[in-house]
Design goal:
Helices cover 81% and strands 0% of the residues. It is an all-alpha fold and 119 residues long. The chain has one domain. The mean pLDDT is 86. It comes from Planococcus shixiaomingii. Keywords: Membrane, Transmembrane, Transmembrane helix. The chain crosses the membrane at residues 51-84.
Length: 119
Amino acid sequence: MNKFWLITFGVIAAIVALSNIGPMIGLAVSGLIIYMGVHFYLGSMSTAKKVWWAFVGIVGAISAISNVPALIGVAAVAVLWMIYRKWNDKPVEVFAETNDPFTNFEKQWNKLSKQEEYK
């Protein structure tokens, strides 16, 4: 993709991300409220506290649902990241790191066998 289109899509994505900054902040605050509600709900012993923290979690969930346009802003930020990577000619890898023990074993084995060749 040539630089003109990267700049064009980057400007559009930046405008969309900036226009959705309010809902993104609201979604983050709603997520924090939900987290607090669940955390303290699981830690409370009395029924009254459980009811209160469940209510707090439900209010946070309703607030998060009302901030659905924030997902468009998050997608725009992801597009900006991809454009930045493409501009610097870096590969865009979403899932670069694997925790497969066999893959890690093969990497370590290759390193060890290369070191043994030089000894």
